[in-house]
Amino acid sequence: MTTTFRETIKWRTQYMQRQWEFSQWEGREYTDALYEKNGKIARITLNRPEKRNALNDKMFEDMLAGLHQANDDPEVRVVIIKGAGIGFCSGHELSSPVGEESPPVHPSLKPTIRDFYGLERRRCSKHEHLFHFPKPTIAQVHGRCVGAGEAISASCDFTIAAEDSVFGVRGFTALPLGFSCYVGAWPAGSHKLRAGHLRPERTGLDMARIGAVNKAVPLDQIEEEVEKWAQAVLLIAAEPLAIQKELINGIQDITGMGASWRTHYEGHIGLQWVKFRKDEVSFYKAKKDSGLKGFLDDRATHTSGPGH
Q1: Cα–Cα–Cα angle for 83, 84, 90, nearest 5°?
Q2: pLDDT band at 305 (very low <50, low <70, confident <90, very high)
Q3: How big is the chain by its Cα radius of gyration, in Å?
Q4: Residue 133 scores a pLDDT above 80
Q5: What residues form DSSP beta bridges with 144?
Q6: Backbone angles phi, psi at 222, to 5 degrees
Q7: Span of 11-15, 79-83, 100-104 with lowest mean pLDDT
């Protein structure tokens, strides 16, 4: 079927328009991420428990709308992000239909590399939006924390994890995603976190021991521990804290944080743009041919290394 110029323009603008939706919080009905405020503390709960809190566009929009609401409320001083159900977040929603989660660019549109890059910047910049949020943020992690969920955790100022929580996912990569690809280990000591740790999964206790999260506690103590950290943040004067956070973020950007984010986009583009050889695993082709589970099984057979 021939794709008209009008259809191409409509597709290219669709996700640009949706990205602005997260700033509209007044009168919003939160569904895929919930917002609640208790005094000076706001809580955003990723709320797709039946999908292990997999991130679709609506969840991103609700989460970021909650951040905007917290930022616009002068009483709110700290934001906690957590997950409903048995885990924090299972990463991007890979099995959703078109319209729920930003899809790869359809070949019928004859996309250029600029189209891919523009899409990935619009999609992945949501993590940067969280990272540069002007008020302190705390990730409260339990259960699985995978892929883009790890990016959310690492983009928060603090992460408190349950000791038995799991970061990374077996069968998807030989490297633990959270503290090798995302910002949680940047910049000091990141080489120490990667070197000698070629394992696809790590528990919250492991992550605390190597410094990739701030603290790990038993699951039944995590609410109390996160509340304790939030109350400690509230003791710090808000304005100097905001300035200090921006200063730290600026230093990280000067030392290469911005370039690190760009390579994140390029990694996504590699999944979509590169023409794989027959003996290489192409995510989108394998998913189309054998489904998501088939892809993960196939990827697992191609992945070897410590921890397998």
Answers
A1: 55
A2: very low
A3: 19
A4: yes
A5: 166
A6: -70, -40
A7: 11-15
Burial of 86 (0-12, 13-18, 19+ CB in 10 A): exposed
Neighbours of 137 (CB within 10 A): 25
Identify the weakest region by mean pLDDT among 43-57, 81-95, 203-217, 260-274. Answer: 260-274
Lay out the sheet containing 78-83: strands in order across.
33-38, 41-46, 78-83, 137-141, 158-162, 215-217
Instruction: Measure the CA–CA gap between 184 and 286, rounded to whole angstroms.
Output: 30
Average pLDDT score over the chain:
77
Q: What is the pLDDT of residues 144-195, one digit of tens each?
A: 998 888 889 988 999 999 999 998 766 554 344 433 344 444 444 455 555 5
Classify burial at 6, counting beta carbons within 10 Å of its beta carbon; exposed 0-12, middle 13-18, buried 19 or more. Answer: exposed
**Considering only the top CATH level, what class is 5-274?**
alpha beta
Q: How far apart are CA 266 and CA 246, in angstroms?
A: 26
Q: Give the CA angle between residues 146, 47, 234 to the nearest 5°.
A: 85
Rounded to two decimals, what is the model's pTM?
Answer: 0.76
